[in-house]
């Protein structure tokens, strides 16, 4: 039975060391500094092209990168600390997954996008793209939060990053779709992938851990740190790899408007849907962010500020409705246990974002974009596509993302079922104690209460 | 009686949806991308003026914007979580107010500042200015924290943003005063507005909720997250919309020195004023920030580093004294219940900041500013004013800000008294339960203790 | 006995006011705006050299500065809140030390590095360097966390900043070593200085406070905020003052890879070293950061991405081993009580970072660096040194840093022993109550439990 144990003493170190060793080896063979990070090449470039050091792309991407980085490690990490007894795992497994994911995706994305002369060239753009990829993995993590061992999570990362890279390559490079903020490549893919994994890993006895699935007062406040950071920096996320100039500027602004409108919709719906006219933290923590997802494809385009606001408002409404009505249904009818409700925050808004992107693309005209068409829609600009056909390709890309997510999620889900990975039993989900040395005195508030109550019961009996 | 209820099921959704619908409609009619965010116009600009994409103002304002954004949503939001049972409301109502406020102020400020050819042009500067305006609203929120419903807060935002826009227009555009960091337009206006609202909404029975007005250990730590972010990013706040070059650079640096000196003054005064030689978290959380407020007008000017430090030190002393002696007096003598002590952090330091700004302006000489005079004091530079008269105009601006705040605050206070808005009763202030679904097991530490104590009492009786 | 009291009513205000007054006086005499922050000089520069405002270094250093600032105030501050009853002191004394330290180091570093025509010229670079210096002080603070009064901490800051400035001057300007991220000047110096102070201040009766030295569930989550911010922004730290262009870009990227690899090593070692195959939060909070320290010297160089990853992996392994085996030994055998384990996070990785820096420097060739040699190794570039001799000088610099730290730490430790400074007794270490007004209802979780347990015991007796 030891192979089936949740004891991580052997299997986790072994896996971490093997994965890191392989990664370092592949980096040694394939990864090189790009022109902007290599001392020799950059100074040659300065010499040859009359550039100055402040032309280095570091200055025009790195602030966005750090905002994205904050979303990945603080945003996702703390958003998931809402569970009363799973805070250590939420923030620290998020940390582990992302730290491995960004290395692995540098390789995978590098093979597909940045392979020149047999080498992968890395710099600020590869750093942003790697963080983006880990975002998709962390979305999937949200669906299975509390129900997987770190070994399972690392294996999921390994395979999902790989599939992400292939899917992204097909969508962006072969289909020629635009998806700067990843409505399709990140949100749709990450959400439906995670839902499929959760479906395969369905736990019929999960009700034995349900009492630990909720939040306590302070865990909800920790989660709000995650929410607010995601909300604030989403404009940087969507704009981080768009073209310089008006593109980045417009993308950030559209996202900002969408999120603001989404927030009002979320408060409205949360109060409306509750039986007692009270607000629900789950909605505020999650649905208010759907405004960033829903403009992930279109924020780069000439969406107009009020267009962004309509999209954002819609996202808030649909996402809140999803938390209220759809998540319970997914669980009871489809046997998909979606811990964080990623279907509501990333799944539906991602799909809608793809559709909105297709519509806005189909409406592109030379009059609206002027010389700027080349940055947003190069294939329309160079005459190889009409705006309408670009719209159609956008929709094809959505189906590709869904296909990769659904099939990939099922396959990886079955891999994660291998017993040796140390999945926690149904009775010990949503708790840190199975994987962590938890301080004795105060092992999560819920448990602390339990201890006190027990003590009191003893006294009562006495 | 249902119209007077604090049940938010109908009134909050209705208000959110109406406000958002009006906002979107006005955006559709009036708001357009500016040259830096519009694909067509920006690329035309590139073509016509031999510019490059990295000349886009996005790269020279957006990092400052994100720092300001963090202050508004994390800084203000978490600073107010110090209350033991009001953490959800503090951070989430802050979120709601700011999300609506930034949209509404884009319109109001746009009508006054950015109206060209019948359209409001938006880009990074309008985003920063909108966030600034919400800062004033959040200061007012601090005065009535724990005592207002979200409906009241949205109405306050609606009217206060409007008055803010008019006041700001008069001060900056008509009077020609300088106030980059908003000592007058943001801090003085926001604080006295809020104090007047609190005065009109005076609650004679508030002592029935006083036991909930304090903090608990962890809520004070959450509040410190807010404090530290405000403190760190205040240099970005004061410099976010100053002229490019030395102006932004100097403004940030002056603010940084002022805050550092203010922190030492705050620790000194806090230890001195306590009966037992112990430090008080309320002072550290708040008074240490007054150094940012007090140089809000003058940080842009040639204040000198040591001048900034003297100002900051003064701010720390006065603000701490205010928390110790003035806040209780305001309550008992003037019937102004100032939950967060905004008079000490924003009111007095704001007024003093305006005065310091006037003095430093009056001392401006061509020798000190050189060609840089045009950026800091264009009206002195072009000969239409002497430095002394600029100083006088600065003082006039202070009185305008005070006048708008006092009169506006009273008027809006009376509007907020309309019973249908769902103001909580005096017995239920400072608690989340009235507006939120609070997790059962651990409804704030104070309440948890209560539960335990009760249990224990039962056992004792048994 | 009053002179020996821990009552801060007189001594802390007096010290703060005297230090700030001296600082302001010295600023008034010596500190002036530099060319980039002075209105007159900058606009003259624009005029004379055909520059534009966006050439101001503010735009190319300030985002890095704010990341560093966040590490200093949020990162260090919250990392140390892991102690269950010492959260107020951790974050607020960190705040006090850093606020004074940055002012004092502006003067000290100014005298050594930036003294022109009898004046210290300040701008964004002096701001970053001042923050760097406070980083070293905060590392030392970590070694004596919970065991020193704020008066002791301010005195330590006063002297340690001064020694830091001299040490840094010798290493960078006289020896000509490179140390952009401060493996030697910040981490090695700060750690061994703090360990020596802790050694001199050895507390034989500290076991009387040991029950307060641990964490509780939520304090570990607060600490993770610090950890994650340090981890995310370490690339900005190491690159903040490197040369513009490829140097900053490469330094940030190398650090990012090193940290990612370090994180996997830390999880691996943490699971491996625990008896029960469970992860330990202390390791994740600390050892995962050693990857930033270990490339502090070499990240600027052509370390290669896989080289950075090997270094980072090594750092994670050694640091975790140190927490498990070395910290207890230091305490029991060498009488060094290292509260935060700074020897594992900063000491050993700092020394190793210096050695790696020396090796990579010795391997520098004209072929690898091209024209970029001048930015990374100016003394090799201008022919005054070979790469090998640069490597030797790097090692000499390490010994200088160690020497300053060991001797300086002992001397300052003895100064801090002066009884009047109000050091807490051995029985009252690691608790806020001695220096803070702590909210009554919930004075830290540990104490709260104590209260409950006591109550229960009474009932049991009844």
From TrEMBL, chains A, B, C:
Lineage: Eukaryota, Metazoa, Chordata, Craniata, Vertebrata
InterPro entries: Ammonium/urea_transptr (IPR029020), NH4_transpt_AmtB-like_dom (IPR024041), RhesusRHD (IPR002229)
Membrane topology note: Multi-pass membrane protein
Domain Ammonium transporter AmtB-like: residue ranges: 56-420
Membership in a protein family: Belongs to the ammonium transporter (TC 2.A.49) family. Rh subfamily.
Principal subcellular localization: membrane
Keyword Transmembrane tagged: yes
PANTHER family given in the database record: AMMONIUM TRANSPORTER, AMMONIUM TRANSPORTER RH TYPE B
Spans through the membrane: 12-33, 68-86, 93-115, 127-146, 153-172, 184-202, 214-234, 254-274, 286-303, 309-330, 351-372, 392-416
Location in the cell: Cell membrane
GO terms of biological process kind: ammonium homeostasis
Keywords: Ammonia transport, Cell membrane, Glycoprotein, Membrane, Transmembrane, Transmembrane helix, Transport
Protein's recorded name: Ammonium transporter Rh type B
Signal sequence segment: none
Superkingdom: Eukaryota
């Amino acid at each position: 039975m030891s192979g089936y144990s949740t004891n991580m003493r052997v299997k986790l170190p072994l896996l971490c060391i093997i994965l890191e060793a392989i990664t370092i080896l592949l980096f040694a063979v394939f990864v090189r500094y790009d022109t902007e990070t290599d001392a020799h090449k950059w100074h040659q470039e300065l010499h040859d092209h009359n550039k100055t050091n402040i032309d280095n792309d570091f200055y025009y991407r790195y602030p966005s990168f750090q905002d994205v980085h904050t979303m990945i490690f603080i945003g996702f990490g703390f958003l998931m600390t809402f569970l009363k007894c799973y805070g250590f795992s939420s923030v620290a497994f998020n940390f582990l997954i992302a730290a491995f994911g960004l290395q692995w995706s540098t390789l995978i994305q590098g093979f597909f996008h940045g392979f020149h002369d047999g080498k992968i060239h890395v710099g600020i753009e590869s750093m942003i793209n790697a963080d983006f990829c880990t975002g998709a993995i962390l979305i999937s993590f949200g669906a299975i939060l509390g129900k997987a061992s770190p070994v399972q999570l690392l294996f999921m990362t390994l395979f999902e990053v790989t599939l992400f890279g292939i899917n992204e390559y097909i969508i962006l490079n072969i289909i020629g779709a635009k998806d700067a903020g990843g409505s399709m490549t990140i949100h749709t893919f990450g959400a439906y992938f995670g839902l499929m994994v959760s479906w395969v890993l369905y736990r019929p006895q999960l009700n034995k851990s349900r009492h630990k699935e909720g939040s306590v007062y302070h865990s909800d406040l920790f989660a709000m740190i995650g929410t607010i950071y995601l909300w604030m920096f989403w404009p940087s996320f969507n704009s981080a790899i768009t073209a310089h100039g008006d593109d980045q500027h417009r993308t950030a602004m559209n996202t900002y408007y969408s999120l603001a409108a989404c927030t009002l919709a979320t408060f409205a719906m949360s109060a409306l849907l509750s039986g007692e006219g009270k607000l629900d933290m789950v909605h505020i923590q999650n649905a208010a962010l759907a405004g960033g997802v829903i403009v992930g494809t279109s924020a780069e385009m000439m969406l107009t500020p009020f267009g962004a606001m309509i999209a954002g408002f819609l996202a808030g409404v649909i996402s809140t409705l999803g938390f209220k009505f759809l998540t319970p249904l997914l669980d009871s009818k489809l046997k998909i246990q979606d811990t964080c409700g990623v279907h509501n925050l990333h799944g539906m808004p991602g799909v809608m974002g793809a559709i909105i992107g297709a519509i806005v693309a189909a409406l592109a005209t030379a009059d609206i974009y002027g010389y700027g068409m080349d940055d947003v829609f190069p294939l329309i600009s160079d005459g190889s596509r009409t705006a309408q056909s670009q719209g159609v390709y956008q929709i094809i890309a959505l189906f590709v993302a869904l296909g990769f997510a659904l099939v990939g999620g099922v396959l990886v889900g079955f891999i994660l079922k291998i017993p040796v990975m140390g999945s926690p039993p149904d009775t010990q989900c949503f708790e840190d104690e199975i994987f962590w040395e938890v301080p004795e005195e105060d092992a999560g508030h819920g448990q602390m209460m339990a201890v006190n109550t027990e003590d009191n019961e003893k006294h009562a009996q006495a």
